[in-house]
Design a protein that fits this description.
Layout lengths: L5 H8 L3 H13 L3 H14 L9 H20 L11 H11 L13 H20 L20 H4 L6 H6 L4 H11 L5 H5 L6 E2 L2 E5 L5 E5 L2 H8 L15 H14 L10 H15 L2 H8 L4 H5 L10 H4 L3
Antiparallel strand pairs: 1-2, 2-3
Length: 316
């Protein structure tokens, strides 16, 4: 896989309209996957709604999708610049019936994975239109059925695992887990925390889309952070990549006897949302705490018992 630097993406965007169109047409005509990834990234970082604030995670996800769709199109005789009106639906159907290749997984690709791949393919065609290469929209009428299983069911919050795992974490790893499970940070936000972001009992967090929020910290989180020295010269408290942090945390889960329960850092963030909702019964306040733009998003982070309103309906 070719690693494309941000300046390379800007270089494409800085081409003249004619030069950009020629580059995009040539890449699409020859099924040049990596150049099409660059075109998609250039569009995403300069012309999409998020622009330069588009997260690296989103860019990587779309690159993965382009690297899947372009070879499929080549193999199945799809002309990228002049696709058939049913080609988008054909690709969606193929994804829905494709066996999962994840480690230890069986069955077909998940609905979320299908949706991610299709979103990336749609972004490719928005990029090709932006580059002036084609007006085709093969996915305009392609529908991706929603996943019938709620995310909170597929990936529920950690419960008692948190305290058990903390006993097997060295101080810096414990601080990272508490930032996610008690302060509700995304792991990317937690790994970016600097000592200067701490102001007493609050933490300034730079979240998705460049949004900044002030997060109140409980005493356990404050104590964990107070014991840390900077890990980098710029004052960052962590010097781990996402992969390095994941490796360490999964190891701690295994040491605590919960290796099979490891579901990533997001389940820790859901732990904080669920606990806060149990205390406040207010999705709006939980959403503000987690940094959500929509309460509908917050609802997907909170596990509510099936009999949550039993007492309320008792005397109906």
């Amino acid at each position: 896989m070719t690693l494309v630097r941000s300046e390379d993406r800007l270089a494409l965007a800085n081409l003249t309209d004619q030069a950009l169109r020629v580059r995009a047409v040539e890449a699409a005509s020859t099924y040049d996957t990596e150049t099409l990834v660059q075109v998609t990234w250039a569009y995403m970082t300069t012309a999409s709604r998020q622009g330069a604030r588009t997260s690296r995670k989103t860019l990587d996800a779309y690159a993965l999708a382009v690297r899947d769709f372009v070879p499929w199109a080549h193999e199945h005789g799809v002309q990228l610049l002049r696709p058939g009106r049913r080609d988008g639906g054909r690709y969606v159907a193929q994804l829905q019936t494709r066996p999962s290749q994840g480690r230890g997984r069986q069955g077909q690709l998940s609905a979320a994975t299908v949706a991610q791949y299709v979103a990336g393919a749609r972004a490719l065609y928005r990029a090709l239109r932006w580059a002036g290469a084609t007006e085709a929209q093969p996915f305009e009428d392609a529908h991706v059925p929603p996943d019938p299983t709620p995310g909170i069911v597929k990936n529920p919050p950690y419960l008692r695992e948190i305290d058990a795992v903390l006993e097997h974490c060295e101080p810096r790893l414990a601080a990272l887990l508490l930032l996610c499970a008690h302060a509700g940070l995304r792991v990317s936000e937690a790994l970016a925390v600097k000592g200067t972001d701490l102001q007493g009992a609050r933490l300034t967090v730079s979240g998705k889309g460049g949004k900044v929020r002030r997060v109140p910290l409980g005493k356990r989180v404050r104590a964990a952070l107070a014991g840390l020295s900077p890990a980098r010269a710029d004052g960052s408290l962590f010097d781990w990549t996402y992969a390095q942090a994941t490796y360490r945390m999964h190891k701690a889960f295994r040491m605590a006897g919960h290796g099979g329960a490891w579901r990533g850092f997001h389940a820790a963030r859901k732990h904080s949302g669920t606990r806060l909702y149990s205390a406040t019964r207010d999705f709006t306040r939980v959403g503000l705490f987690l940094g959500h733009a929509s309460v509908d998003t917050t609802r997907r982070y909170v596990a509510v018992a099936d009999d949550d309103v039993q007492n309320e309906v008792e005397d109906f």
